[in-house]
Write a structure and sequence with these properties.
- This protein has 259 residues and is mainly α.
- The protein contains 14 helices and 2 strands, in the order H-H-H-E-E-H-H-H-H-H-H-H-H-H-H-H.
- The chain has one domain: Farnesyl Diphosphate Synthase, CATH 1.10.600.
- Strands 1-2 form a two-stranded antiparallel ribbon.
- Strand 1 and strand 2 form a beta hairpin.
- The longest helix is centred in the C-terminal third of the chain and has 28 residues.
- Belongs to the FPP/GGPP synthase family.
């Protein structure tokens, strides 16, 4: 579990939780627990996605994938345990109000399940070698990647107390950067090498998976990522929250990154 969740990595999802909590004036203890929980879910999903029964990858975050290092059975169990630990972290005996615990658990569970990450991965596996139109590709990426990033923002916001209009604006921000993240991932898969990415480059093309680059082309995909970044900034402005500097910076980093 430590091998999978500690060490290298962008920590984008926990950073989004903490930045949104700061913008919402949120409780520090709850926000930090939510940040840890969402990273545990992310790490478990990578461990399982990399296994031979799914993406069959051997490199993650610049080192051998979990199943390569410890074997498939231990990798599966470590992923299961990280998923369970995420919800354990969200439900301490003291320090976080029960109603907030329930809200955070609901947001994380829904983002992780059939209408989120797990469902998106199922669509991804079923789409290998099949043509997808842009709407279908967007739905797959929204579930597989976007919803958990959006939930990270909403979990941070839940730790504070903001008007409904501001919460809706943060939700739009999360949706925009969630999709932008996957669009940029598709771009990097064909423009960077494995040493920079920290994972195997060219896997989507080699596996004949539909991506934004294969559906739109490289330059249109880059332009789309920039439009999504602009949508995220517009949503932050619409939130009328005073302290969104970190959220604004993270939106830029999502699009400008090279790994």
């Amino acid at each position: 579990m430590r091998y999978a969740v500690l060490g290298a990595g962008k920590r984008l999802r926990p950073l989004l939780v903490l930045a949104a909590a700061e913008a919402a004036g949120g409780q520090g203890e709850a926000a930090m627990r939510a940040a840890c929980a969402v990273e545990l879910i992310h790490a478990y999903s990578l461990a399982h996605d990399d296994m031979p029964c799914m993406d069959n990858d051997v490199l993650r975050r610049g080192k051998p994938t979990l199943h390569v290092q410890y074997g498939e059975a231990r990798a599966m169990l470590a992923g299961d345990a990280m998923q369970a630990l995420a919800f354990d972290v969200l439900t301490p005996d003291v320090g976080v109000a029960p109603v907030l615990q329930a809200q955070l658990c609901k947001l994380l569970a829904r983002a992780s399940g059939y209408d989120g990450m797990a469902g998106g991965q199922a669509i991804d596996l079923a789409s290998i070698g099949k043509p997808l139109d842009e709407a279908s590709l967007r739905d797959m990426h929204r579930r597989k990647t976007g919803v958990l990033l959006q939930a990270s923002v909403l979990m941070g916001a839940a730790c504070g107390d903001i008007p409904a209009a501001a919460l809706a604006a943060l939700s739009r921000y999360g949706a925009a950067i969630g999709l932008a993240f996957q669009v940029v991932d598709d771009i990097l898969d064909v423009t960077q090498d494995s040493d920079v990415l920290g994972k195997t480059a060219g896997k989507d093309q080699d596996n004949n998976k539909p991506t934004y680059v294969s559906v739109l082309g490289l330059e249109p995909a880059r332009a789309y990522a920039l439009r999504l970044r602009d949508e995220a900034h517009q949503a932050l402005a619409a939130s009328a929250l005073a302290d969104t500097a970190w959220l604004s910076l993270l939106a830029d980093k999502v699009v400008e990154r090279d790994n």
